[in-house]
Amino acid sequence: MLTARDVQGKIITIPENIPKERLVEWQTNQYYCPCCTAELILKAGQIKIPHFAHKKTSACTASSEPESEYHLLGKRKLFQWFVNNHIEPEMEPYLPEIRKRPDILIYYKEQSYAIEFQCSPISEEVFLSRTKSYQGAGIKPIWILAEKRIKRKKTRKYSLSAFQWLFAMNTVQSPMIFTFCPDKQKLYMLEPLTPFSPRTTFSQLAVLPLSNTLPQILFSTNKTWKFHFTEEWRAQRKSWAIHSVKTAKQSNPFFNGLYKNGLSPAWIPSEIGLPVEGMVMIETSAVEWQGWIFMDCLQNKKIGSRIYRSQIYHSFQRRISNGQIRLRTLPMISAKNPFLAVDAYLTLLVKLEILEFGGKGIYLIKNKLNLPTSSVEYVQLESSIYSKLSEMILL
């Protein structure tokens, strides 16, 4: 930690660099934890960043996991960033009402924010507990992930673990994750997060040097859904089909459902597995949850048949209840209605002239989804669908 109480009870923050002539003075003073009042020791060497630590293994309720040099440096750089932009931060303040100690606390436009720079994995339980504690106290948490933890697979394709998805913030229309590299003094913004599957997501990367970036970027809210990754998504959808043919097992409920409905993973209609607004809330891949909607509600309907939105909701909820559709845990995104993605998918099917909206939650089957009978036909149908999708996105 970088803050402590001195013998007079005053909160002090240790300097980033202690001059040699003052080091003995700092080391001979006594320091105490602002949270548990236990005595602390000052660790300051030639290499390590000066910091305080509990003398023994601590049972301090506000003490977090051991801090790395990277973490200590990151807190300092972020703290100074707020100071430089005239936002008064508090370093490691102890909040007795919730028994938590965020890395940094700021107050901006009548709202308190807890800034947490996370460099090492912690359990989902701990993450959610801290987040809910802040939210319950009226404090908005902003979790910033260490940049070195992000795994980029291609230019705009990333692999995010379930733990990293917890960092998603903003809105369901425009979810984002902030990462930070204290060595480079750069903030990075992955936005909008557009998940294809539980781990694979597409996103644009904005590189934001602290020297010319305002902290207000952390508080901005974009509620407009935009999709920038048509060709990347299309390639991933093709890859999924090829891979699934080799690995599909009938013991998997989804592939078992495909076989029972006479569908091949390689030739699933291209209208299944399309990007739509709100799908960040659904952990299950778009191919699967849209495939369930097709098999449960659309496949056996004749042209002109009615289908009620409530029926689709009921079927979707049933798949959630039995674990065949899984939702993401997104503690920093509010208004998490999984049916938003279902509604967006139905709207897309209307635009693709598969469905026709009949008003009052009623849809009519306008055209059947085309089931290809050959690889040549599949290529033609797939090309047609993505051509239409590109035109819609450009509108």
UniProtKB/TrEMBL annotation:
Residue ranges of the TM segments: 158-178
UniProt keyword Nucleotidyltransferase, yes or no: no
Residue ranges occupied by any Competence protein CoiA C-terminal domain in the UniProt entry: 232-373
Domain Competence protein CoiA nuclease-like: 67-221
Domain of life: Bacteria
Residue span, Competence protein CoiA-like N-terminal domain: 17-63
InterPro entries in the cross-refs: CoiA-like_N (IPR057253), CoiA_C (IPR057252), CoiA_nuc (IPR010330), Competence-induced_CoiA (IPR021176)
UniProt keyword annotations, A-Z: Membrane, Transmembrane, Transmembrane helix
Keyword Repressor found: no
Stated name of the protein: Competence protein CoiA
Organism listed in the record: Peribacillus loiseleuriae
Taxonomy of the source species: Bacteria, Bacillati, Bacillota, Bacilli, Bacillales
